[in-house]
Amino acid sequence: MRIDLHAHSTASDGTDTPAELVRNAAAAGLDVVALTDHDTVGGYAEAIAAVPAGLTLVTGAELSCRLDGVGMHMLAYLFDPEEPELARERELVRDDRTPRAQTMVGKLQDLGVDVTWEQVARIAGEGSVGRPHIATALVELGVVPTVSDAFTPDWLADGGRAYAEKHELDPFDAIRLVKAAGGVTVFAHPLAVKRGECVPEAAIAELAAAGLDGIEVDHMDHDADTRVRLRGLAADLGLLTTGSSDYHGSRKTCRLGEYTTDPEIYGEITRRATGAFPVPGAGGRAS
Question: CA-to-CA distance for 119 and 36, rounded, in angstroms?
Answer without folding.
Answer: 25
